[in-house]
Amino acid sequence: MKKTLISVAVLGAMSSAAFAQSNVTIYGIVDAGIVSERGGKAGNVTKVSSGTANASRIGFRGTEDLGGGLSAIFTLETGYKVDDGQLDASNTLFNRQAFVGLRSATAGTITIGRQYTPWYNALAQVADPFAAGLAGSAKNLFPANGANLRNSNAVVYQTPVFNGFSGEVFYGFGEQSESSAGRQVSAAVSYSNGPLNARLAYNNRNNDVATGLVPTVERDIGHNSLLAVNYDFKVVKAFVAYGANKGLNSSTLPNAAAYTTAPITASMDTRNALVGVQVPVGMSGKVIASAIHTDDRESFNRDANQYAIGYMHDLSKRTSAYVSYAKIDNKNGASYTVGGNTEVGTGDSAFNVGLRHSF
Length: 359
What we know:
Largest sheet: 16 strands, antiparallel, barrel
GO molecular function: porin activity
CATH architecture: Beta Barrel
Protein name: Porin
Distance between the termini: 46 Å
Order of helices and strands: HEEEEEEHEEEEEEEEEEE
Number of domains: 1
Membrane topology: Multi-pass membrane protein
Subunit structure: Homotrimer.
InterPro entries: Gram-neg_bact_OMP, Gram_neg_porin_domain, Porin_dom_sf, Porin_Gram-ve, Porin_Neis
Helix content: under 10%
């Protein structure tokens, strides 16, 4: 009798555990391609690259219904390299996203942890026809790296959608002896109605350093603003975007020494403009193209233009093949490079072809 009761208790515990885990989803992307880069001091570089269209990743996403329209949520996501199997950030497990929060159908969603900024979401989700990937990635000229992309120690609130409008607010704690040092604030307002998507985003980064042992090192604040719009005409989907970047670290260069021995100093006053299209081809393909201009407002006048074209073909709902090419015209010693979603690139032109599988 005791053995029977113990067996029932064990089975009940296992059943409860299985039920608790049933709302956890394992997901990811496996993306690998062949990349050929030209025009940098490294010469002609041909390599196998990971995360050209989308960064390769594996993640865990879960929800628990708390009743009354309230749910607990979490996401843990790590990036890895398909070409050699390593993590894409050493000594950091969940380097891409790591947060926990609450979601309400009527009050919105609040999350705490390592998360994307609203500014970067506007660039990747609304502004860029290449979705921040392939050789034509807008990340090559727009300042979409470092703290502008994602940040740790962040609290994010997202509103519900009201008549097509929604909002998002991001606050990243600097966690220094002075509360404002290292602080990051970002926000976005979105509108979506049928074929129209529009988003206005702003990012503010305090570059001060405060250790508590010495006086605070006061540095400039970096500001990034972005207006992004796309409209689906069915026969073509059009994209336009305009960004303004001012202050220290507002326009950091992904590869500042691509063409020179010493790194080029990044401008603290630039503007970005983008126009692009996605053109459906049959039921499974699309041609992608964009042109981007960076206007350096400082005395060096290190402007740049990027022209890109690509094609993506869906082999199934989860697997796509892609090919793309982009060329950057750097002016007055500018140091912009053609990269992809994950790698920053080594020169002013690149061709890539590859395969992406989602699960």
